[in-house]
Amino acid sequence: MKFTSAVVSSAIVLATTASTIFAFSPNAFLSSSSLRQNPPAHHASKLQMSETTQQQQEEQTRVSKKQKRLQFMKSPQFHRNGFKEIRNEVEDTMKQQFKSTVVDEMKSNQFVMERDGVKVHLASDFGFCWGVERSIALAYEAVKHFPDRKVHITNELIHNPEVNDNLQGMNVNFIEKTESGKDFSVVGEKDVVILPAFGASFEEMKLFNDKDVEIVDTTCPWVSKVWNTVDMHQRKGLTSVIHGKYGHEETIATTSFCEDYICVKDMKEAKMVADYIVNGGDKAAFMEYFKNAVLEGFDPDTMLRNVGLANQTTMYKKETRAIGQLLQKTMMEKYGPAELDQHYMEFDTICDATQERQDAVHELVENAGKLGLDFILVVGGWDSSNTAHLLEIPQMAGIRSFHINRAECIGADNTITHRTMSGEIVKEPFILDLSKDVVMGVTSGASTPDAAVQDSLSSIFMLKKLSGSA
């Protein structure tokens, strides 16, 4: 793993908009208010001016959250570029904590290693992405830059237990979650607040902006790109259909920048939305099902006429694309092909790192027979969405595979404690025949340090070695 100052100082500035899959006129989308009412023709001229004014006011309202966020970022107490005076020290710390000689050896040997009767095939893309490295570096720099301040973080920095343990060891206070929400009462004047890689909600940003605190924003720029996309939706009078988990920190932050939205976690829920768009149905039942995935006051009869697709950056790429194709087909069926660009817009908000790691696992799966893989090991936080999706790929191909969050999940009694696709944590026998050589594949999520992979492999090497001496 290579850590350089570019992780922080050369963060890519992502475009505020992306190319849509359809060409469209700037005036192609009307405001939602004009779509929710159909005035008689003799009222049209009378209402035209007031509607225009109302549309202009709604346009201003729709972009106000983004504008305010940009205003927050201009504050001298808002930090998103790190602190240069201690950057080299932080880079050295990160190398010591996260670097792996085992992983480096595999990378230099065509991603293969043989040791103690175990042959390991490492996925060609795995582990830390630059956005995660940047986030960790910013957080570590913040702690060292403000040595005499109390430092808080609004959530886990990333979904990795070792990294979060390290921050706790640096006396960073993780804001407590209560039944009524996060307890920000512990944040005092002059304190430091770290915003995690997933981002923070608009309401949280406003709260801290109003307080006399230092804000260190480690939000991944790919997440900010999604925020810019849903802002575009709002300005065009679209309801954002977000492929994501409504309870995930990133999606919570994204929806806070929306005026109208509905979250769908998978194709099943996307099909429910598509069916309602085309056929209508039991509105009460629809709203009961999606009650936690929409903004209060959501009306599917009016707010699903014009939609735009965005996604939680860690979702499964192929499913996001399939949902996009479904929505295109749905709008063509409802309004006709000629009107498609009047009712649907799609931007590419799939994170490159997420896609690359998924593609690399697909490659392992496709070659599993030729390589003779006994299983594939996926290393990463159990609450990591991108890591969980890596597990889905071999599981759906019928290949024995395990998602572990720490090396300790591999027991000395040849058992493995792992997370299933359904989210259940189970324990079962691990290597089926220790008397034979083991051939395995391994990958890790975008928030997983190489050191965690090394520790996990070392446990397997030791398990196999001890079985031979028994």
How would you describe this protein?
The structure is a single chain. This protein is α/β, with parallel strands linked by helices and 470 residues long. Helix content is 45%, strand content 15%. The chain is built from 19 helices and 18 strands. It has a five-stranded parallel beta sheet, with helices on one face. Strands 2-3-18-14-15 form a five-stranded mixed beta sheet, with helices on both faces. Strands 11-10-12-13 form a four-stranded parallel beta sheet, with helices on both faces. Strand 8, helix 8 and strand 9 form a beta-alpha-beta unit. Helix 3 (44-73) runs antiparallel to helix 9, helix 4 (87-98) packs across helix 6 (130-145) and helix 16 packs parallel to helix 18 (385-396). The longest helix has 30 residues, at 44-73. The chain is globular.
Topology, pairings included?
Blueprint: H1 6-9, H2 32-35, H3 44-73, E1 78-79, H4 87-98, H5 101-107, E2 112-115, E3 118-122, H6 130-145, E4 151-153, H7 161-169, E5 173-174, E6 177-178, E7 181-182, E8 192-195, H8 202-210, E9 214-217, H9 221-235, E10 239-243, H10 249-255, E11 261-264, H11 267-279, H12 283-289, H13 300-303, E12 307-311, H14 317-335, H15 340-343, E13 344-346, H16 352-366, H17 368-371, E14 375-379, H18 385-396, E15 401-404, E16 415-419, E17 425-429, E18 438-444, H19 450-469
Parallel strand pairs: 1-9, 3-18, 4-5, 4-8, 8-9, 10-11, 10-12, 12-13, 14-15, 14-18
Antiparallel strand pairs: 2-3, 6-7, 16-17
Helix pairs in contact: 3-8, 3-9, 4-6, 9-10, 11-14, 16-18
Count of distinct strands: 18
Major β-sheet profile: 5 strands, parallel
Query: Structural class of the secondary structure composition?
Result: alpha/beta
Main β-sheet, spatial strand arrangement = 1-9-8-4-5
Contiguous uncertain segments of 5+ residues? 1-47
Helix content: 40-55%
